[in-house]
């Protein structure tokens, strides 16, 4: 199982995509999409993986696309500027997405709230965060709940998020810091260039094992975590070229993990 593999390679926590930008939920939600009927799984994939992860001694976090939902807004994103303009701001979506987060909290008690692509400006995030912390005392929240600014500048070349109203850690994507950070951080990236399964990604597109180990050591030395994406195929299996790298990293950690886990940066 996935959970057995993740435990074997030394993972301490898992984050599952519960709803990506397409709006389809991987749990049988009691708050169905008002724009698309039956737009959720019948099998509780979130619950099944959460149970397995915890049985193998790991923490479980949940990802949710709180800014983009193509069931509500199908506008095409052609450049970085469009990202902020396509965040769904309708009151119906605000109520829907907040209700989803609360359902995920109540049902699965996630150790981590991993939101993506910002959040509607009309949402009361202080109330949502208080709801989470009152239910999960040791839970943590990422820095991607930024709400859209009043003015979105033209011709921006990279996605610069406004400051999140609150967060416990920051999430640079496919990036690392040059110096030790006082605040806990987590770099997120795929083993290759894709977050989902990409059949065109061969070994030459994926991180070599020595690159993966060097990145992991570098990030940990600067007070960071690595959230490494696995892109399963349609049948749920992990592609062999990804699995080989995970297993090799696990073998390295069997020998060297004591110098990595439960450590602190040192000058």
List the helices and strands and how they pair.
Blueprint: H1 2-8, E1 13-19, H2 45-55, E2 59-65, H3 80-85, H4 91-108, E3 112-116, H5 125-135, E4 140-141, E5 185-190, H6 209-221, E6 224-229, H7 240-256
Parallel strand pairs: 1-2, 2-3, 3-4, 5-6
Helix pairs in contact: 4-5
Structure description:
With 267 residues, the protein is an alpha/beta fold. 31% of the residues lie in helices and 12% in strands. The chain is built from 7 helices and 6 strands, in the order αβαβααβαββαβα. A 4-stranded parallel sheet has the order 1-2-3-4. Strands 5-6 form a two-stranded parallel sheet. Helix 4 packs parallel to helix 5 (125-135). The longest helix is centred in the middle third of the chain and has 18 residues, at 91-108. The N and C termini lie far apart (40 Å).
Short description:
The chain is α/β, with parallel strands linked by helices. It has helices at residues 2-8, 45-55, 80-85, 91-108, 125-135, 209-221, 240-256; strands spanning 13-19, 59-65, 112-116, 140-141, 185-190, 224-229.
């Amino acid at each position: 199982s996935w959970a057995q593999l993740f435990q074997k390679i030394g993972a301490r926590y898992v984050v599952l995509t519960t709803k990506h930008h397409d709006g389809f939920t991987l749990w049988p939600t009691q708050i169905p999409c008002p724009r698309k009927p039956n737009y959720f799984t019948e099998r509780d994939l979130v619950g099944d993986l959460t149970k397995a992860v915890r049985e193998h001694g790991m923490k479980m976090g949940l990802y949710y696309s709180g800014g983009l939902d193509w069931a509500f807004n199908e506008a095409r994103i052609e450049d970085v500027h469009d990202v902020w303009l396509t965040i769904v701001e309708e009151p119906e979506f605000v109520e829907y997405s907040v209700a989803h987060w609360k359902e995920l909290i109540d049902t699965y008690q996630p150790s981590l709230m991993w939101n993506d692509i910002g959040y509607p400006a009309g949402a009361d995030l202080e109330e949502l965060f208080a709801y989470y912390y009152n239910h999960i005392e040791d839970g943590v929240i990422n820095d991607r709940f930024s709400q859209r600014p009043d003015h979105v500048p033209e011709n921006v070349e990279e996605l610069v998020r406004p400051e999140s109203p609150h967060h416990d850690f920051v999430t640079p994507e496919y990036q690392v810091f040059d110096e030790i950070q006082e605040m806990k951080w987590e770099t997120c990236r795929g083993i290759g260039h894709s977050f989902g399964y990409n059949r065109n990604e061969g070994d030459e597109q994926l991180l070599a094992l020595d690159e993966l180990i060097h990145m992991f050591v570098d990030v940990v030395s600067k007070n960071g975590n690595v959230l490494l994406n696995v892109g399963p195929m349609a049948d749920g299996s992990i592609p062999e070229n990804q699995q080989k790298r995970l297993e090799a990293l696990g073998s390295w950690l069997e020998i060297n993990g004591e110098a990595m886990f439960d450590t602190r940066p040192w000058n």
